[in-house]
What does this fold into?
Amino acid sequence: MRSKETQQAVAAASSLVSSLGLQVDDAVILNNSNKLTLRLLPCDVLARVAPKHEQNAEFELEVAQRLADVGSPVAALDPRVEPRAYELDGFVVTLWTYYEATGEVSPSDYARALEQFHAGMLKVDVGSPRFTDRVEEALQSLADRDHTPDLAEADRELLSSTLRRMTRAIEERQPAEQLLHGEPHPGNLLNAVGGPVFIDLETCCRGPVEFDLAHAPAEVSDHYPGVDRDLLRACRILMLAIITTWRWDRDDQLPDGRQLAAQWMGEMQAALASTS
It folds into this structure.
């Protein structure tokens, strides 16, 4: 969010939580991208705030509640308030338990948590997009030069061709598909006191488990059973093409986004070279 919108979002979340009977004297911004993530103190609520027109909070809440019901390692909603999406001043706010992180998650624990998460997802029946929908969104962004005005044409063509090529490579293998996290990268896995928990469930989609593994550190797949290495390689390249494309979008607000785009483009090109 931009500076003015961020201030409005903080004010809306603070006012909302206060109206629910919880004390709010301070708001600490933990993450600011398409959504604002706040730690509200001293009540210690984690608030996720998004503009009303850009939110899919109801979907995230439904997935979180259903996964919690089957014992999956997911962040819990705050038990002191009604578990729903709240609207105030043009923003939608969801309220979650705040977890104090205790350090990095080891590759073996990461893989175990992801395997448990996937097992829980098999028990959850919710409508969701497919991973190919994310590919299509990236392709549309590349095709619309108004959305990616600073992207060099050679890079635009490479990203477009890679998105199409890797999607074909994945689908030709006809892998089993299921509901996934969608982006279970290290920033979305907290090493909480009670064990690792996944957060940020708005990205859930259907696809092969290798698509999720592609977002995790490479060492994690060594501890995950039954991985198709060729499929994982294609998914990792596809994932790099998708996230590189997002960093070139004119509305992207991720800090150091262009620096990350250059890094990920280099990783993607190296991975492509190794498959030639």
